[in-house]
Every structure is written in structure tokens, then in C-alpha cells.
Amino acid sequence: MATSAVSAKILSHPEASLYVGDLHSNVTATMLLQKFSTIGPILSIRVCRDMITRRSLNYAYVNFEEPIHAKRALDTMNFDLLYGRPLRIMWSQRAPDLRKTGVGNVFIKHLDKRIDSKLLYYAFSTFGNILSCKIMRNESGESCGFGFIHFETQEAADMAINKMNGTFLVYKKIYVARFQSCDSRPDSPCKFTNVFIKNFGDELDETQLHELFSKQGEIRSFKVERDEHGNSKGFGFCCFETAEEAEQAVKTLNGYSIGNKQLYVGRFEKKHQRLSEIKRKKELKKQESTNKYQGVNLYISNLDDTIDDEQLEKEFSNNGESKGFGFVCFSTPDEAVKAIEEMNGSTLGSKTLYVGLAERKQERRMRLIKEHKQQLQTSNISSQVGLLVRPQTNPKLQQEITDIRTTKHMAHVNSVECPNSIVVVGQERLAPTVINNATLQEQKQTLEEHSFLLTPQMQEELSGKITAILLEVDKTKLHVQKSPDLLKAKIEKAIGVLQAYEAKQANAAKPATTEPTDS
């Protein structure tokens, strides 16, 4: 009976594809291959990455050849450590319906910090097949005290809720309920009973503070934090019996005057909650500043060391009303555009200025990555295309499109589709740094293009053969690209060799003649 159940399970996932989550950002496909290949043959492994930054998204897909091997990996390797983190393995769910609807998904909170995903998995596995089990952790890897379990069926999830809600797990009473997404949760006000107090200094002692807060409701616990010498740190906590009493204390006592100080009373928040809120407010402030100065804030670089704020403002004041320093912020976008047009590339002091629109660090980084990616794509297309437009000296003639058929160097062109791609090559001298940094194949490609342009001007009928000869040189001789005169000399030498060879071949092809002899 058990064997048939396993077989049915394997057949329900014929693709034998596993989702592997909670990966460390440094985990690579090679590491996963070494880990999972001990189970059985693997077809492919893909670590999912951001399309722009190429950073790992912390999950991957492992595709086995046989479903039975995928099932074995799921049963034996779930929660194994890799790069210091436990793996979270589940069947790959191609259809998003199961993930989005939340069917079978259970939320658990008030968990002890010592409980990990593996222990939680085994505690709930008796109620049905578990697709995924995860405990949420903060940036330092500590448990946040809550997690999620995704059962295969809603019946198993309901059974787990009925049996486990309100029970004790590692000496703590846990709360278990159906998972609700943020959109489906009711907009109820946040309730709290624990209050944070600060800024009372030495004006009030613990007894006076307790008496002050006891007027707002019944207090369950009260504490003032102290240092190792027993002196007050100036902050403390008060836990009320009900949320209404705690809310009343915040409304009444927040801003309460104590001598020359004002008391701060607010809802108690854990450290990660405070940091998250501070980060949110900081990002919101940055975004507001960006929107406010969009198109009017300029970034200036390459300033001379002698330039100060006053001189910088003086130079740009002719283009409009300037606000601030370091960065120059104008009143309108038109003034900013005018400043860029007039000041970018101008000399200030002993240096040439760069002036452009100011960007946030993240926006600038994304833009540069995108531009770099586009340059790489353009470079790949240009290096693999097989059409070359040959410039003509006679303006009355149309440009002749010559198909360069050098099969040795065009073996991989068919693997890339480049419809209607034509490269127009001019007779320009390449920078030595470009040549030195290029690969051997790129150097030969450049030599092919430049020699093809020079050859027809001297010997049209031999151009194809001469180009092929030059392409046979090794890497140490490719330096001729740096000097057009040297390249021209090499071409002339190749012409002489070809002409001598063709003359020899022509003589050898002539029929031999003999004098008649008398019989």
C-alpha cells in the first residue's frame, strides 16, 4: 500500500523537478551539482538570478533524469546544510494557482527561538503531506518567532489548526491559524499592551514613574533599565493589562513635561521592527527629495582642488538661480538643461568639468549596468555578422555589399540570428589599448576588416587571398594593426608572394614540348 502511494506521488511530478530555496547568495550551480549528484543523474540545475544585477535570488531548480531520484532527494536532503544554511526543498510547482490561493497554507507564531524549520516540519508532518515549511529569520539569522507550513490539502491544514492551536511546543504556547495574505487581512488597528518610555533622565525614579503610569490602568509589569552600577539609563517599559489602557497611556503621557524635558511614550517595538520602520521612513524621504529635485539637480565632477563653493556657485549662477552647493540645484529643469549644454566639457581652473543630471547611487548603478549590457550585445552581434560594406572612392557608385566567406572564421555564425545586420567599417586607426586588451579572435576579426579595406585599393583581384594569408599569422604578429604603414607593407609583401606563386603555377601548367627526332 505504501509503495503504491509513493509511485502515485512520483507520477504526479513526471518532470522530476525540485525547487531548492533559502540558499545563500554565494551558492552556485556547481555546488548544487556536487550535492545532488550523489542521489542520481541530473539533467540540469539553474540558480535564478536578477536579470540586471545578476545577483542570486536565493533559490534554484534541480532537474533529475528520473522522478524516483527527485523523490529520494526530497526525502533525504531537506534541511541539509549548504554554505551554513538549511536547504528548503519542495516539488517545483509550475502552475502559480496553488501558491497564490493559499490553499493548505498555515501560519504559526509565538515559536521558541530554538525551533528550526526541521523541528517544525516533523512536529506537523503527522497531519498530512507537507509541501513547504519555513521559519522566518532576520538579517542576522535569528528566528523571528513565526513561520509557515504549506500542506498538500486543505483538510490536512484544518486538522493541524484544530489539533495544534493553543498547544505547547518547546514550553511555549503557539498560535496556529490559516494563512492570510496582506490584501485579504482586515484593516484592524494595531493592538498592543507593552509601552516604551524614555527621556525621563534623573528627574523621576522608578517608584514615581510607576505611580504616574498606574493612573492610566492596571499594570502587569514595570521596569527601568539600569547600567552595571545601578544607575538609570533613562528608558524603561510598562506592560498594561489591556490594549485600551496602553493606548490611553500613550495618548495622555506622550509629551508630558518633566522639568525641562518631555517624556516620550510609545508602542514597544522589537529592534528589527524599529530598524525596518526607520529604513522605510529614510527611503520615503529620499524618494520625496528625488521627486522634488527631478531634472533640476546637477552633478559636477572632475573639479580642480582650488574650486570652492562660492566659485562653483558663481560659475553656474549665469544659467539660473542656484540652490545649495557640491551639487548644483536649479529652480527649473530648463535652467538645468541650459547649464549642462553650456558647462559640460568647459574648463574650470585647470580641469575639464563633467556636468550631468544628478542620480541616486542605486539608479546610477542600474543605468550603467543596463548600458554595459547593451554594449556587450551590440559587440556580440557586430563580431559575428558576415556582411561588410566596402566604402567606394567614386561617389557616383553605390556602396558594394560584399559577402566575406571565410569559413574558418565564420563557423559559429549560424548559431546566432542577426537579420538585416550590416557593419560599415571605416579606415580608422585603432587605439593600442583596444588591440592589447582584445582576445586573439577579436584581434583577427579586426585585422580581417582593416586589411580587406586596404587590399582592394592596390590589387582588387587578389584581395580575398591576401586577407586569408594575413589571418594565418599568430598572435605575436598581430601588432601590425597598430600601424597602417606596417600593415600596408605586409600586404605588398603578400601580393609579391602570391604573384610569384601564380606565375610558377602557370609555368607548370604549360604542356611540355620536345624536338622531333629522326627515326
TrEMBL record:
PABC domain sequence ranges: 427-503
Domain RRM: start-end pairs: 16-94, 104-181, 193-270, 296-360
Compartment annotation: Cytoplasm; Nucleus
CDD domains assigned: RRM1_I_PABPs, RRM2_I_PABPs
Identification of the protein by name: Polyadenylate-binding protein
One Gene Ontology molecular-function label: RNA binding
One annotated Gene Ontology cellular component of this protein: nucleus
One Pfam family, short name: RRM_1
InterPro entries hit by this protein: Nucleotide-bd_a/b_plait_sf, PABP-dom, PABP_HYD_C, PABP_RRM1, RBD_domain_sf, RRM2_I_PABPs, RRM_dom
Keywords carried by this UniProt record: Cytoplasm, Nucleus, Repeat, RNA-binding
Family membership: Belongs to the polyadenylate-binding protein type-1 family.
Source organism (scientific name): Rotaria socialis
